[in-house]
Amino acid sequence: MATTVAGSGTTPSRQAPARQPLGVLGILGLVLTGLGAFLLVSGALLRYFVAGDVVKFPLNEYQIATLAAPDVTYFSSAQAKPLSGVTMRVTRTTVGDSAAGSDHRAVWNRFSSYIDTTNGVPYDAVTQRSAFDRRSGEAVNCCGAAISSTAGTYTGPQSGQAFTWPIGAGQQPYQVFDTVLRRPVTADFSGTSTIAGIPVNRYTEVVRAAKVGTQKLPGQLVGLKGQATVTLDEFYQTTATYWVDPVTGTVLDEEHNEKLTLRSGGQQRLILLKGDFQVTPASVAAIAAADRPHRSAIVSITTTVPLLLGISGAVILAAGILLSVSRRRRPSRSTPRYQTVGMVP
Question: What is the 3-state secondary structure (H, E, C) of the chain?
């Protein structure tokens, strides 16, 4: 009779588990992981690369603003005498030269007309043509840039902020091109406030009396009766304040407390212009209304949309990873296979 060997018989043996199919959860995990990564990358690209090509100052700018100054003193060439206590209005029209601009450069023309509204006579007219970088607002030398007024025409180099502050202006000093001095002057950050509901940075430019030219006048006109004609030094000083939307770089309001005088031997002989010019409330409201859509668009493309994409991407990516990890950790349900051990006779 055949007998069995101890320990012999049918014994189980395990083989490597078969590869599990992905299943619905696995596929969903992969899809969510890919989508989350895509959204994260899209948010970063929009914020740091696309925005730089989209957010720019316009080529076709058009704006009319009015500045007013009460109690102005100025020298009237027509009447050959100083006038005081008058109201002066400055109408400033800014028009973009689209044809002269490019992807990186804008060219704007600004015409400022000074009118003595008390007597209904013109005082001066100033034209500024400046080319500038479409993101930083800094002047570049090209495209027939020039400053023209009754004092003459300047076609030399321009530098500093031309018409605007940079997009994304910081709380720091900036160099601003002064059309009277014909050179940049430092405008220091001097605080924050709100204009028409828009948070703004305030910058202040102070120019102490500086010589800007000379003029020839009859000596009798300036109290020098012993001289038929005299050559006097022209001095300019100002305290200018700018209220700037830091998001768009647009100047919403500004004030210029200016003084132009003629001097000889260190003594003031004649006031050419003295007045405190500020943008009228109606113009401030119009500028702010035009600024709001640009501000909203910039905030959306640089902050809101990238942030939403980033948060959504992070959440979806985390969900995808969790699904993928949980699928891999599920225990195998394969049953052991048995093999028969031969009998020993």
Answer: CCCCCCCCCEEEECCCCCCCCCHHHHHHHHHHHHHHHHHHHHHHHHHHHHHHHHCCCCCCCEEEEEEEEEEEEEEECCCCEEEEEEEEEEEEEEEECHHHCCCCEEEEEEEEEEEECCCCEEEEEEEEEEEEECCCCEEECCCCCEEEECCEEECCCCCCECCCCCCCCCCCCEEEEECCCCEEEEEEEEEEEEECCEEEEEEEEEEEEEEEEEEEEEHHHHCCCCCCEEEEEEEEEEEEEEEECCCCCCEEEEEEEEEEEEEECCEEEEEEEEEEEEECHHHHHHHHHHHHHHHHHHHHHHHHHHHHHHHHHHHHHHHHHHHHHHHHCCCCCCCCEEEECCCCC
Locate 174 and state its tokens: 């900036």
Strands 229-244 and 198-218, sheet pairing: antiparallel
Beta-bridge partner residues of 132:
106, 139
Residue 229 pLDDT: 86
Distance of CA 324 to the CA centre of its chain: 45
Q: Which residue has the tokens 């998001």?
A: 247
Dump pLDDT digits (tens) for 288-329: 999 999 888 887 777 766 677 678 767 777 777 787 777 665
Query: In 10 A of CB 118, how many CB atoms?
Result: 14
pLDDT tens digits, 100-154: 999 999 999 999 999 999 999 999 999 999 999 999 999 999 999 999 998 889 9
Residue type, 275: G
Write out residues in the chain with pLDDT < 70, as ranges.
Answer: 1-26, 29, 36, 39, 42-43, 45-54, 304-306, 309, 313, 327-345
Amino acid at residue number 222: V
